[in-house]
Amino acid sequence: MSIISYANQNVYELVAYQPGKPIEETARELGLRPEDIVKLASNENSMGPSPLAVEAMQKAASDMHIYPDGASFALRSRVAELHGVDFANTVVANGSSELIELLAHALLRPGTEVIAADYAFTLYPIVAKLMGAGYISIPNRDKWTHDLEAMLAAITPQTRLVFITNPTNPVGTMVTQEELVSFISRVPEHVVVVIDEAYIEFAGEQTDSVKFVKEGRNVAVLRTFSKAYGLAGARCGYAVTTPEMADLLNKARSPFNVNAFAQVGALAALDDHDHITRSVDMVNKGRLQYVRFFEERGLEYVPSHTNFILVNVGDGVEVFRRSLALGVIMRPMAAYGLKEYIRITIGTERENARCIEVLSAVFDS
Fold first, then answer.
1. Structural domains in the chain?
2. DSSP character for 256?
3. For the residues of 43-105, what is the DSSP string, one character each?
4. Integer CA distances (angstroms), 139 to 35, 143, 145, 301, in order
5. Prior bond to 255 cis, omega within 30?
6. Per residue in 233-267, pLDDT tens?
């Protein structure tokens, strides 16, 4: 009898998370040089990592024989200072994706439920399935923006987590501070509202979600160093939440879950304000490149508050495949139920120009 017969069926039945196609894999498959490939599929920062982070990580290399600080004391202390909260309100993890998993471990079990919006980050239903919990996807208002009223109405006694991605991935829209205040004031106490702010730096900090934590609400605000800070390869993220919730998450995480390179790099990156400014400026200028092109071509796109843009190209998988053959990697959205769309990361001016050149060639052929 196959070992699959004894496997956790929630794991066996999962569809694994599919990241953006790597440059090296594309080069091998298509016989292209890696340096000739433009990757605009994973919302990475084309500006590169924070120079202050790189310097700190280089200095830390000689101490790699020593285990990292299991409590991430220095980084958590800086996060607490940055947001005006106590050390006990903070959790650091191996990317915000681990924080999502830890929330699932802490609060979900068979018979409980998770609520999220349509077209939400695909890790949300994955962790719900892993824990044997139900997953409720709420249609957006005007197709693209979270319908917080409908999400509130969907809450039951079994609901434990409600995910609000602000700005959203893969769409790029936002809900306002006023909408968040109204929603969270009415959420029952048995529910934790997770405000996933992986892209908030590109939105110009239009909301203040940490205020809900300071008010003692059952809220967990998630941030990452993978996007604006340019440290996707280091894997580091943090949560600001109640002390009770932080304690649960810290109990659920593995020892030394954040490596020493990530800790020192993230700590340095938090103070690299110049890098953030230049990264956001690059994205703002690049977004205009795409908007002009899409409007010239009469393509429907979703106005974005992030470092990516979602556009209707008719057949997302086909446009992805043909663009890939020309050395530009984008992200088809069929897995999100958006088969007509592709998501394009906003890169450098040169990368954006190359992407537009390839899309033009695909459309005109």
1. 3-47+273-364 (3.90.1150.10), 51-269 (3.40.640.10)
2. T
3. ---TT-S-HHHHHHHHHHGGGTTS---TT-HHHHHHHHHHHT--GGGEEEESSHHHHHHHHHH
4. 41, 7, 9, 19
5. no
6. 999 999 999 999 999 999 999 999 999 999 999 99
Which tens digits make up the pLDDT trace of 304-340?
A: 999 999 999 999 999 999 999 999 999 999 989 999 9
d(CA 356, CA 313): 13
Query: Distance (Å, rounded) from C-alpha 130 to C-alpha 97?
Result: 14
Token duo for residue 55: 């310097």
Q: How many residues does the chain have?
A: 365
Cα first-last separation, the chain = 52
- Cβ atoms of residues 72 and 256 within 8 Å: no
Q: What is the pLDDT of residues 135-162, one digit of tens each?
A: 999 999 999 999 999 999 999 999 999 9
Question: What is the pTM (predicted TM-score) of this model?
Answer: 0.94
